[in-house]
Write the structure tokens for this entry.
Amino acid sequence: MAAAPSGRLPLPTADCIVLSAHGRLRGATIGSRWQRIAGTRLSASPSPRSAVSQTLPKLREAGVAPVSTARLSITQTTTVRWSLPEAIAEFREAGLRNIGVSLDRLQDCGIELGAELLRDAGLTASSLGWVGGFTGANGHSYVDAVADARAAISAAQHIGARTLVVVPGALCGHIRTHARRLLVEALVELADQATECDVRLAIQPMHQLFDEEWSFLTSLDATLDVLTRFNHSHIGMAFGAYHLWQEPRLLERIPEFVPYVSTVQLSDWRDPPRCDNDRLLPGDGVIPLAQMIAAFESAGYRGCYEIEVWSRDLWKRDHRSLIRECMLRFAQLLTTPT
């Protein structure tokens, strides 16, 4: 995999075994750290389904409204072998209305052409991803990362994406408080432009399994600490079900943080995961996704649900059949009794 341009985190390629934020290929089996973290967290956590069963009666009483399949989006991370023009054509043919655009694929295509193709196809860019790495991820400087983010905000505005996903970066030798300070300083520098362009910067917290490569923000509370101190209309959160499903009392807390959520990313968890590119299609794992969607709807979320699957197995599948399977799985989630 080629090195990413300054500050940018690379889009996964279909032939890589394990995705690395630094563009490195790693072995096919998980190491001892993966086994330790995945095993410990799974064994120490209460059953998510038992926790859900205590919360669902409240959701039923609230009378959750039906979710329209028109709010489904699929990100280009799910269909890594397609260029942006290919993805746009195939998504339109499949009847999709939204697409999560990859910044790398957009730049490969050209921003002007990408915007034109999206308009002609009648597709909405549910998000643009991703930027960040303000802590020095990929060996690039803070200044370069902020400059890349500024360019990406302009690109998001140009293609009509109201959400720009921000991956803060790993610790990279910093203490956690300094890494947080770098993120906050970057957001301060970018907030005015984001407001002017009407693009929301959506911070992406990630599971602890990804902290050495991707994001030092690995919990809901740490992310909310940043967001509540900002309290800025154009700084929010990208909620990844894969990353946050094990948070204590998650369904109960959704009303607390839903105003910050710019996009909800859906994929499922293999128990246990074999590597960091081992996500499953919704319904094939252990995450209570139908109940999660119901909780978001009850709390007033009205944005897109983006299926984003990093999977070395699914990336090898025929992408045309894959996106149709994604559409089917989303429809099944909406009809699953909660």
Remarks:
- The first strand starts at residue 72 and ends at 75.
- The first helix runs from residue 32 to 44.
